[in-house]
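User: Show me an example of a complex going from sequences to structure tokens.

Assistant: Sure. Here are the input components:
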Amino acid sequence: MKKIINTPEGYTDDMLRGIYEAHKGKVKYVSGDLRCYCTCERKEGKVAIVTGGGTGHLPLFLGYVGKNMLDGCGVGSVFQSPSAEEIYNITKEVEAGSGVLYLYGNYTGDIMNFDMAAELCAMEGIETKSIVGADDVNSSRDEGKRRGVAGIFFMYKAAGARASWMGSLEEVYASAERAKRNTRTVGFALTPCVIPEVGHPNFTLEEDEMAMGMGIHGEPGIWNGKLKSADEIAEESLGTILSDIEIGSGEEVALLVNGLGGTSIEELYILAGSVMRILSGKGIGVYRTFVGEYATSMEMAGASISLMRIECEEMKRELDLPVSTPFYCQA
Amino acid sequence: MKKIINTPEGYTDDMLRGIYEAHKGKVKYVSGDLRCYCTCERKEGKVAIVTGGGTGHLPLFLGYVGKNMLDGCGVGSVFQSPSAEEIYNITKEVEAGSGVLYLYGNYTGDIMNFDMAAELCAMEGIETKSIVGADDVNSSRDEGKRRGVAGIFFMYKAAGARASWMGSLEEVYASAERAKRNTRTVGFALTPCVIPEVGHPNFTLEEDEMAMGMGIHGEPGIWNGKLKSADEIAEESLGTILSDIEIGSGEEVALLVNGLGGTSIEELYILAGSVMRILSGKGIGVYRTFVGEYATSMEMAGASISLMRIECEEMKRELDLPVSTPFYCQA
């Protein structure tokens, strides 16, 4: 294992200490627990949005806590859920009188802990509503069973914008739900990653192999085989997405080409170029393109392609609202 | 070689096509040459700033072309200089009546071509002035012979701010020079990268080895040896930097912890935490911390640490000015 760390056990907390020190005055932790990550900005009467998930996916999840996006994030150990108590403590800190949206990925541990936190909040009269990202088309035919991956970024943007416009909890939820309903992702890996406390990869890929559909924790995909070209990968990925959601000629999408951590930005733009050419050939317009690292798997090489179908002008306004966090800024 | 590409020969131009398509209306190319990268924004009377260098370092170099930063960038093939003609064509496009600053890295090919471009410009009455980034302390004892690496970011910020405030060419140069004079970088690699048209790494490192002082094109460093901990790496790197530039207790610096491409953001924050603890122990304040991928070497794992000593309040204003490019945004 080749990582710049002090100890494998200290990975998450050392990272958090670095983040809090680097971004003092913007983010803080509460309840004396580094894992309770909150924005320093508070707007009375705004719906608060809380996310959470395991470490190892930066800028996901905590990286989206900031202006016009999220208010708090429960930070788990590497690839593990934060605890219900942590989520509850964060919620108490960030709720500002208008309820709290729990917006996170579709993973068993996270669901269990967010649900428990919601119950604790209900007992104190704090209203919450939950929605999970579940955009990974290849992870299941059943939409309800799909894993949440990079497409959650579009849900964060939508819900964050609506909350910043002082929408009600129902309205913030509806914006997140609309983004979710219209978003699909296909991802693939070229190399594995190493969980620090494990010390070795949990799978191997040959020097000329890729894994289509692999999850961001190394969950098995739909095929392992010869590495394809950028054009071929784009073709297959868009085929998968467009057979799952109808997007006709003349419609528009937002496009996110996301790097999993170990892949160069140069390659992401090559892939984005392939995707945009194919979409253009189908008469599908790209309203806005995002390229970079949005949801990673530490040093895993690979990428994902997310499309969000734009069904109304309001979705564009949500996409275009400037946001600013220590990890992500859109002017 | 495991890369998401179409052909090794098409790497640079396929990347550029993806970038122009993704960021239409923000950046464009001129003279019918994809390698002549320019901002779409023009401000009459502003000093223009042009950079350039080889492909393989995104967001360096072209990623800093945008609002309150740079105006144009000559794009070379992987690890190669852009041509003098390309730099000249970019210069003609972006110059806005007040002269042009050439600001790039200290590499032989780049110097030759920027100097030739400057001569071509002089013949047409376009005034230029040149300054090179040369911040890599371990690359030479002679400051004039040092390679330019991630620290050029601070020069871009300084010069970009001064130009946006309508400073003269002399003033823009002076801001870049002040940033240069106060900036030092130490970098190290954990894995090599692969030039697409070569197809294999140009060096190897054992599974438990790192290379201290390695350059962003794989230039040899000062030692290869056992991988150290984040704390040890920070200690050695700061020792090197602070023996080269005097920064006393009570003084302030800007800190940049930069990932070389294949290293996770989590590790960068662990390293940043180590650096900030050591600086704090020495009584050196950190005015602002930047952590992320600022100057990469494609998929190379590793990082660099840059300090810029802050010698006056004006340097803080230059650092704090919001900037926005398709690749980098600071609110």
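The lines above are the inputs; the final block is the predicted structure for all two components together. The longest strand of chain B covers residues 302-310.
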